[in-house]
Amino acid sequence: MSAPVLTFLRLITLFLKNTAGCINSPYTTYRKLADGKTDSRQILFIFLLALCYFAFASAVRVGIRHPYLLTFKLNQLILGGVSGFAGMIAYLFIMGRLLGSVSRFTTLCLLWAYTLLPTIMWFFTTSFVYLILPPPRTLSIWGKLFSVVFIAYSLAILLWKLILYYLTLRFGLRIGLAKIGAVSMILAPIICIYSILMYQLRIFRIPFL
Predict the structure, then answer these.
(1) Distance of CA 64 to CAs 57, 70, 86, 89, 180, Å?
(2) Which phi and psi angles does 5 have, rounded to 5°?
(3) Phi and psi based region of residue 207 (left: phi greater than 0; alpha: psi -120 to 50; beta: remaining)
(4) How confident is the model over 17-57, as pLDDT tens digits?
(5) Coil, strand, or helix at residue 108?
(6) Which of 38, 83, 147, 205 qualifies as a FRET site for 196, CA 20 to 30 Å off?
(7) 96, 108 contact by CB (below 8 A)
(8) Are 11 and 79 contacting, i.e. CB atoms less than 8 angstroms apart?
(9) 105 contact partners, CB below 8 Å, separation of at least 6
(10) Is the pLDDT of residue 63 over 90?
(11) CA distances in angstroms from 207 to 151, 153, 176, 189, listed in the order given
């Protein structure tokens, strides 16, 4: 096999292994990701998944019969997603420097990229549900049962997201619980402003973070 093919196979194997680790043993996986010895190019597969979602969501919301609107919506989603990712990395990097952290920029990018896995999974699910069971949904027993299941699923995804967020700060910035709380308190209003901006621009109803 050629070198590019071998590199691709190695990276996708590494990505799949770390993805499984983020689900089954996130603490151990994040500790290994933060040691600086893993290939950071594996996050390209996460960005590819995000791009696939943006394309899928654009097709669901706009339709493939309107190529110009489809392209415009896709560019909107990509811009919103990139701005959210870059903004979070910039914030964490600046806070790390203020707190005297010795973390590397590439390590923060790698760790935060893997926190996008629950985000992508949840957004994909909501788009599929929108396609299969578009609103308005009934108030029947089945409709209520669906709502309960979806809320439980969303809470599980949120818990997973929070765990990965905590591990990103713990191993990426190398700070303790008290400082993580302080960083989060400052971050909360920033996320609120970003969420309102994305909603006003009709890019995301829920922030893609």
Answers:
(1) 11, 7, 29, 33, 44
(2) -65, -45
(3) beta
(4) 999 999 999 999 999 998 878 888 899 999 999 999 998 88
(5) helix
(6) 147
(7) yes
(8) no
(9) 89, 93
(10) no
(11) 17, 18, 27, 13
